[in-house]
Amino acid sequence: MKAGANLYVGGGIILLIAVLAIFAPLIAPYDPVTSANLMYAEEPPGAQFWLGTDEQGRDIFSRMVYGARISLFIGLAVQVMNTAIGVSLGLSAGYIGGWWDEMVQGLTNLMLSIPTIVFALALMAILGPGLLSLLIALGMTDWAYSCRISRAQVLTQKSLNYVQSARTMGFGPLHVMFRELLPNIAGPLIVVATMGVGSAIMAEASLSFLGLGVVPPNPSWGGMLSSAREQLMVAPWVAIFPGLALFAAVLGFNLLGDGLRDLLDPHGKGRK
């Protein structure tokens, strides 16, 4: 019951955010960038501006809706990059073994010893702010978990009959790894990837908050929180609503990943 509730609640939250992001031009009543009007600066929530306005008179609801596009795109793109790197290294390390396995394990341990945000900050300092730099920095910093999990799964699977049969039939290592092993270890990787999207969204917001993410005036939840620091006492809604959106997105992906974990775990029902 708990697994189903987490799955449905998390999926519902993500579906709502995805609908807002996809249909942003139809849903947002104002342009998120060019609608600035100082006459309406720091207007409280009301009939004209549902969630109020910021210090430049821009509609917060419109900027949040368009910001959902950036957050979802970055979260999904970064996690695709992390999963591709981690799974490729983990599959090859577990299957090939030897010196390659030792080298991949050493690199994985090194990545796990460095906080993700610190490594991303170092890369962003080199690459400079911007969307492409953000994707590269985050896409190269959080693959270690996928690598470790895929390697552990391969070590338990590669001695099973279906792998031995594929080898006997003459299939090469790439076929065995990606056509035989990968589909059979996909369950835990899907869970890690789903939860990783929420982590990537949070990392993007952190970097944007520090001024190293999405370049203003493009709307970003982290950037909106950063610009709201000086207005927090006089116009708290400028920070409250983007913060709630960020919280909802991360919570949604975590609940979805938790529900998928219980659903894909063959022993989950027995524990409950």
From TrEMBL:
This is ABC transporter permease. The lineage of its organism: Bacteria, Pseudomonadati, Pseudomonadota, Alphaproteobacteria, Rhodobacterales. The keyword Transport applies. GO terms for cellular component: plasma membrane. GO terms for biological process: transmembrane transport. It is a multi-pass membrane protein. Keywords: Cell membrane, Membrane, Transmembrane, Transmembrane helix, Transport. PANTHER family: OLIGOPEPTIDE TRANSPORT SYSTEM PERMEASE PROTEIN APPC, PEPTIDE ABC TRANSPORTER PERMEASE PROTEIN.
